[in-house]
UniProtKB/TrEMBL annotation, chains A, C:
Transketolase-like pyrimidine-binding domain boundaries: 18-193
Name of the protein described by the UniProt record: 3-methyl-2-oxobutanoate dehydrogenase (2-methylpropanoyl-transferring)
CDD domains cross-referenced by the UniProt entry: TPP_PYR_E1-PDHc-beta_like (cd07036)
Cofactor or coenzyme needed: thiamine diphosphate
Family annotation (InterPro entries): THDP-binding, Transketo_C/PFOR_II, Transketolase-like_Pyr-bd, Transketolase_C
Taxonomic placement: Bacteria, Bacillati, Actinomycetota, Actinomycetes, Kitasatosporales
The organism of origin for this protein: Streptomyces smyrnaeus
Pfam families: Transket_pyr, Transketolase_C
Superkingdom, taxonomy of origin: Bacteria
Length: 361, 400, 361, 400
């Protein structure tokens, strides 16, 4: 199985503004050019170039057998991708929107995620499932789900969510090169986000499973990924500019939820002593629960306050006119930071806490 | 369900056992063939005709002049497609004015939309998809309520149990089993109710289409499935969607009749649906109807159809326009004077104007309603979250 | 919509041993007898009485229109149930095994869970989805999944898992009577568990959403549900008998994961100061993460140690011959209790913790 | 894939556009019909015959005596069904001895199992379900490895890429799209490979069946679908599963041929499958074959079939036993002497004895292997968990 990745070009070329959508398209194109086993398929990915135009031009360049419009059936797309992977191809499929991946859930959970394990490594599933995901673009019902909790709870899947143009390219290349299935969550509202970037010499991105500290800080750590990364950075800047509280917030972009980079997160929280997990997906049984629990297990004696969570409400995603009330924004993040018990250091007098009784220690 | 006409007690559904389909064959090895071998159901009557059924402009229409379809129905259909066309235009205009989040127009498919609505009796149910706002409006629902999903103020705007129109369904084909379940429930209760479910050509590829039709046939549920084959699933043409002789040919595989009809011929669609719905209500089981039509506009206002189809193709279909076909027929039969035309157009314009006006008023929304209907009783966690949002909103009010 | 529940009979009858499977079957029978709108359907539930015989006798008693064998299609079962609920019925469907519910995931998430919310209460979904679930019965692949994490992460669903014979009856009656959809997880390996029980006078069980303290204790709280409840009780008894450690463990049976009874859990942990969450489902992004995070948020200053989790490994469920290594057992639970930092009270000297730097307090 | 025979470059799959299926109809309104209206594919050849195809004991077999099926094939099939029958008996016995967690016997379906295995060429792939252990064994795989899933030592025991037999698949119909994808991939690579996927009558109701067949037809994938209609899905008889004239009638709805065959006639099944596989390999696209057969045993050893079917029915099918049918034919044609019978039975007995012996040895299992193949590289969390389990195991060793 090829794991070839594009080599940097010889002479440096200027960086120009590129959108995340363009970087993703470029990643697909480069992966297809480098490895004839990479096949892209899904609903409307061929002639149309995908409803978000990420696959634009691929069918023209590589022909309809390499970039293929399929019948409208998500289980069929994932199921045939499994078969193609069994024959040595490296399928990259698109689920048109987050909520439209659900009809393929059975294939994803029972086969994509388990085939390697079932066959003791004999049948790997080098399959990338691209999912335009999350809200904030005024989509009507079923077009704005954050479904990562389902994928995280499924052993055998990698779950990746880029937040920057450079990561979009680098992580998608890594996902396609991976011999394991990757659910690749593309934050819809970042498709049009821009950064200076050079497709000839794409920034190096470490492999899947490495978080990155996007902003250094000392007061508390914001832990986030995907669409909430820019929001957290904005919150961190806001509180600095604001000055009043004098918080210097560290922001960690997880990049991948599975594998989860405990080391980077734990090191940061040990330093800052406080943490808030931020994501768009509903809070209850969402990614934040796992992350907060894990941090607490690893960093309990370093914590000045419980790890808090700022998440979407525990409701079906709201209609377009109300979504701004649902999405975690700067204010809600800073409110949570404010609740990180800056005033008193309760932990110094554990005996005084009310309501405890019958302790054995 | 009160006021619903009652049927005689339903036939036992599962008792009258259909059996294995192997015929005895004369052969030398023969011990007596196993008792469960019986002659099969005859597939012939389930197969669709080789040509889509049409009435308008055919000799068939001519022949019918004496008996039916009567002038009254033709005029009703005509008025409805004229209103429907204008509704589609107005809704598309509202997207440009930022008053709809998105609009998937049924322009070109008005015959199907209107015929579907008019074929239903009072107690029947309609199961529309996102493209079928017009069918709901033609059934008499408030257009503003129907457009709620596409406006973005809520996921769904009208009273479904009251209007007997299920919510516009976005995940493709997923409404089909709902129609089957509802029709089956009505039959079990002895109510004379049929369910008409709409789906696109693309939607027929989904597993839910298959499962729904199979349940319907096995249960003999009074459900009718209308596939509006408009040639495309967004950019994907029918040829990449299926290799079948026609989508109506899928019916025989479930053991229900498949019917093929010209979807731009409102009279033909209406007739075929009425027949299927009558059969369904009478306990005769489900029918699959494929209406061949064409989506004249892009998939939605956000789509660029020039990426995947030629102007020529669109032009050719414009020449087969459902409104023109009906108008031509009426004129040819002397049923359309200028007054009737003017009347229809004015009614359409009035409906559109009223819609425009109402849609230009901002809906008043209470964000805390987001927590009200997740469950019958909000969980403690949801109550907390609602309280927090209320506090945020109050704080926002203050700083304003 | 009827919410009638069976009234206790006039004269007391003796309690006799009953299995959980029998109690579940009785609950179905009583619900069907009390309310003609209750319809039971699914694969093999009619003539056969279900592969676990829970629906045994219902078709004979109520006829094949009230207890119906369906074609083999889980999305079809859930999808038609939605339509039947729209017409005012109260469907109770069976997914034959946990992993075979996945083909119906789309209907469950996009419609069952959301119809009430979508229609602002006009179309409730009084639907019960019975799922024989979990491992420990030597089932081959796909017959032992613990899938509750998926359902918990889906707003609009209630998620219930009984652990006793009495609760099996009472909670299933409550689920069927509920005007909301309930995913009713029946621990397969408890189907044959027995208790003295009187079908004529079934023990009162509070409505969905109430946890229960199954064993009072003062040292630490074990929080669990479904198939792990007897294991936790056994662990609690073992350590008492064992005596060495002198732990007196409290055991909470959550009964329902959604709604989650924070009050009962928080009150216990505030008292004991220590907690372990125990479940069979994989740990990563499983129920334990949410529960631990929530306890920590609510009880931070009462905790002597981080809330620990004992869960299935983060792997696809193992084959029968290896499942005993995967399932949380008494030893693993007591190991976790032992790691609850009994020796030293770290929290009294937070300043001394290594690795913290740049604190702002 | 090395060593696979190469095909001429595949035909463009999506370019040769199948078009909308509306025919022009002479009518008064006619503007020229839209350009995409062309005559449809003819459905006729896709429909199954009205009777299941048979060879054994029919005049057809008699007529063939000169040309085929040759004695050699008959003898091979005979030896294989005798071995197959014995294998089923042995495996069922192993459940009673606690050596298999469960066994879904294919007793009564040996003709299908064996014909499927023998119809395949070296480079073809087989996609079996949980009931198709025998097909894999008849293809030459190690029975102990094939039984791994049902023994419970691992989920899957044989080398799938090496044997070109996909893992026995438990979630119904989910293996069908795999077969389509693999066949499509092989075709894209220019390899002359076909995939044969097995599914039960119950499995045809699943959405995955529908999606797989549709993809296969649209892609013209070299895949053949063999439905073993054994009359039941656990307790649910065919009549509650489908109302179709036959399951083979589903084919026309996808645009592929549907064939109906007597599933207890090994020669007929073999012939129909060979034909379909040849057509598939030659680029002619997929086929749906329904083999009508009967499950003589309960669903699995854990099932009690008396709850849902009568002894009479079973007895009747016993009289149509696949082994007897074949034996009778061979005898009638003078192709079976006592030596051949003895030889076949001894071979079967030997295979069974060896299996029994090997299955009575406990497999040696390393629980920490549970973490080895979840991913190519275990995550840090899995490494931790493996270490913890290793420590537990070591502690357990000590206390022992
Ligand atoms: C399950 C699902 N998958 C994907 C989509 C995204 N999508 C919306 S409309 C559409 C095309 C539908 O085509 P068709 O069924 O022919 O209906 P039409 O839009 O032509 O009316 C797609 C792919 C969806 N809504 N639901
Ligand atoms: C998706 C799914 N749902 C349910 C089951 C449980 N189950 C196992 S076998 C079976 C019946 C299958 O019947 P059929 O397809 O006719 O195959 P047969 O067992 O007769 O060979 C059922 C319902 C399953 N394995 N997969
Ligand atoms: Mg369409
Ligand atoms: Mg069967």
């Amino acid at each position: 199985m090829s794991t070839a990745t594009r080599q940097p070009a010889a002479q440096p070329v200027d960086r120009k503004p590129a959108t995340m959508g363009q970087a993703l398209g470029r990643a697909l194109r480069d992966a297809m050019a480098d490895d004839p086993d990479v096949h892209v398929f899904g609903e409307d990915v061929g002639t149309l170039g995908g409803v978000f135009r990420v696959t634009d031009g691929l069918a023209a360049q590589f022909g309809p057998d390499r970039c293929t419009d399929t019948p409208l059936a998500e289980a069929g797309i994932l199921g045939t991708a499994v078969g193609m992977a069994m024959y040595g191809l490296r399928p990259v499929v698109e689920m048109q929107f987050d909520a439209f991946a659900y009809p393929g859930f059975e294939q994803l959970v029972s086969h994509v995620a388990r085939m390697r394990n079932r066959t003791r490594g004999r049948m790997p599933m080098p399959l990338t499932v691209r999912v335009p995901y999350g809200g904030g673009i005024g989509g009507v019902e079923h077009h704005s789900d954050s479904s990562e909790a389902y994928y995280m709870a499924t052993p055998g899947l990698h779950v990746v969510a880029p937040a920057t143009v450079a990561d979009a390219y680098g992580l998608l290349r890594a996902a396609i090169a991976s011999d394991d299935p990757v659910v690749f969550l593309e934050p819809k509202r970042l498709y049009w986000s821009k950064a200076d970037w050079n497709p000839q010499e794409p920034d190096a991105v470490p492999g899947i499973g490495k978080a990155v500290v996007r902003r250094r800080g000392s007061s508390a750590t914001l832990i986030t990924y995907g669409p909430s990364v820019p929001v957290c950075l904005e919150a961190a800047e806001a509180t600095r500019e604001d000055g009043a509280e004098g918080w210097d917030l560290e922001v960690i972009d997880l990049r991948s939820l599975v594998p989860f980079d405990e080391e980077t997160v734990a090191a940061s929280v040990r330093r800052t002593g406080r943490a808030v997990v931020v994501h768009e997906s509903p809070g209850f049984a969402g990614p934040g629960g796992e992350i907060a629990a894990r941090i607490t297990e690893r960093c309990f004696h370093h914590l000045e306050a419980p790890v808090l969570r700022v998440a979407g409400f525990d409701i079906p995603y709201p209609p377009p006119m109300l979504e701004q009330h649902h999405l975690p924004g700067v204010d809600r993040i800073l409110d949570a930071v404010a609740r990180l018990q800056w005033e008193s250091d309760y932990t110094e007098s554990p005996g005084s806490a009310e309501g405890r009784g019958g302790g054995v220690v | 369900m009160s006021g619903v006409p009652r049927l005689p007690a339903p036939q036992p559904t599962h008792e009258e056992v259909l059996v294995m389909t192997v015929l005895e064959q004369p052969g030398a090895y023969a011990p007596a063939p196993p008792p469960s071998w019986r002659p099969r159901t005859d597939a012939g009557p389930l197969l669709p005709d080789t040509e889509p059924y049409r009435v308008l402009g055919t000799r068939a229409a001519g022949r019918r002049e004496g008996s039916g379809p009567e002038a009254e129905l033709l005029r009703r259909l005509y008025a409805a497609v004229v209103r429907g066309r204008r509704f589609n235009e107005q809704a598309t205009a509202l997207t440009r004015q930022g008053r709809l989040a998105v609009y998937p127009s049924s322009r070109g498919q008005e015959a199907c939309q209107v015929a579907a609505a008019l074929a239903l009796r009072e107690h029947d149910w309609l199961f529309p998809s996102y493209r079928d706002t017009l069918a709901a409006v033609a059934r008499g629902l408030d257009p503003v309520e129907v457009l709620s999903l596409l406006r973005g103020d809520w996921h769904h705007g009208y009273d479904s149990p009251g209007t007997r129109v299920a919510p516009l369904c976005t995940p493709l084909a997923t409404q089909l089993p709902h129609a089957v379940g509802l029709a089956h429930a009505a039959r079990l209760k002895g109510d004379e109710v049929a369910a008409l479910a709409l789906v696109g050509d693309g939607g027929t590829s989904e597993g839910d289409f298959h499962e729904a039709l199979n349940f319907a046939a096995v249960w003999q549920a009074p459900a009718v499935f209308l596939v509006q084959n408009n040639g495309f699933a967004i950019s994907v043409p029918l040829a990449k969607q299926t290799a079948a002789p026609s989508l109506a040919h899928k019916a025989v595989g479930y053991g229900m009749p498949g019917r093929l009809v010209d979807g731009n011929d409102a009279v033909a669609v209406h007739e075929v649906l009425c027949e299927a719905l009558d059969r369904a209500r009478a306990g005769g089981g489900p029918t699959l109807v494929e209406a061949v039509t064409y989506r004249l506009e892009a998939h939605t206002n956000a789509d660029d159809a020039t990426r995947y189809r030629t102007d020529d193709e669109v032009e050719a279909w414009r020449a087969h326009d459902p409104v023109t076909l009906l108008e031509h027929e009426l004129r040819g039969r002397g049923l359309l004077d200028e007054a009737t035309v003017r009347e229809a157009e004015e009614a359409a314009e009035q409906q559109a104007a009223k819609l425009r006006e109402r849609m230009h008023q901002d809906p008043s929304l209470d964000p805390t309603q987001l927590f009200a209907h997740v469950y019958a009783e909000p969980t403690p966690q949801l109550r907390d979250q609602a309280a927090r949002l209320r506090a945020e909103l109050a704080a926002g009010e203050e700083t304003r």
